[in-house]
Specification:
Elements (H helix, E strand, L loop, with lengths): L4 H19 L2 H8 L3 H8 L2 H14 L3 H9 L3 H16 L9 H9 L4 H22 L9 H20 L4 H15 L12
Length: 195
């Protein structure tokens, strides 16, 4: 059976994202991926192996959409504001399930899975460092760059989780705006929108 591995993996991402690890049956996966069970097992391994691959695929595709703005902005305030705005757009994208596969699905599945906890912990550390690496370009930020990166990443998680739970765009904008005002207090004569 011939198929594009990335395309069928993208289909698996959507199934896991929508149904979670436990809720996604092998039948759900093979139907969405357009392959049979033997092809799934021979190409991707077990359902758990497929889930791990789906997490990596999500991170390299959907996940990158929130981080792209960090590379485009020259000052940290603008970069973090753009990061939060991109997070909200991704969280509410009508073409995908709400929230984030990693933040709102994989973390729940990790509770009883040490290997998944280890994987996610490493992913979170790499993401913190990637954000910090972008923010180090501008040294005028009052808060420590590593702390700022961890806070920004945590706000990203909060926005994604709230979106999954049904929060509106205005509610998510309010969360982002509140953190921006704490992290980057605007001078009294600055009328630039927080987000």
């Amino acid at each position: 059976m011939s198929f594009d591995k990335d395309e069928v993996l993208d289909a698996a991402v959507l199934v896991f994202w929508e149904k979670g690890f436990d809720g996604a049956s092998v039948e759900d996966l093979t139907q969405a991926m357009g392959i049979n069970r033997p092809s799934l097992y021979s190409t991707f391994g077990s359902k758990k192996d497929l889930f791990f691959l789906a997490i990596d695929r999500y991170a390299s595709t959907h996940g990158q959409r929130t981080f792209a703005p960090l590379q485009l902005e020259t000052d940290n305030r603008t970069a973090v504001r753009a990061f939060f705005a991109a997070t909200i757009e991704c969280a509410l994208d009508s073409d995908t399930p709400r929230g984030c596969l990693i933040n709102t699905v994989a973390t729940g599945a990790a509770e009883n899975d040490p290997a998944l906890r280890t994987k996610l912990s490493a992913m979170f550390s790499r993401t913190d460092e990637a954000i910090a690496g972008q923010l180090r370009r501008e040294s005028s930020t009052a808060i420590d760059v590593e702390d700022l990166a961890r806070i920004a990443h945590s706000v990203n998680h909060s926005i994604m989780t709230r979106a999954r739970a049904g929060a509106s765009r205005s509610e998510l904008n309010a969360v982002a705006k509140a953190f921006m005002e704490i992290l980057f207090p605007a001078p009294t004569n600055d009328t630039t929108p927080a987000i």
